[in-house]
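From the pipeline queue, job 12 of 40. The input is one protein chain; the requested action is below.

Action: predict structure.
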Amino acid sequence: MEIELFSDAYFMNEALKEARKAFEKDEVPVGAVIVCGKTMVAKAHNMTETLTDVTAHAEMLALTAASAYLGAKFLEDCTLYVTVEPCMMCAGALYWSRIGRIVFATEDEKKGYSRFQPHPLHPKTEVVRGVLQSQATQLMKDFFRKKRS
């Protein structure tokens, strides 16, 4: 399958590369990239075990990196690509960043922000779901299967 350059699938594939890095480190395999225009300004993966920090989710690390790169705390013109639906903590940080768009691959049926009403995202944030969903879902299944064996 050929992926169009600079498409949602293109950038989600970059987030999946980050998720695979987390997998290799025995971290929950979530990856994130933040894009402004056609430029990837941040990329990160879960590092909660590595850093012994419950807040070291891929989204949180990517937000910090993007803000530092851009010299701005508000990211209205940016898109977050993340392999798994953000949790409530990350959704709160995304709200405060005023991120313009969030694209995620697979839902988190237990801890995803959309389980809560009203949802905690900024009202102007656009959300796209299901981009490269099967790849992200399979990576999560493989990780937890490995943990149980």
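Job complete. Residues 103 and 128 are 5 Å apart (CA to CA).
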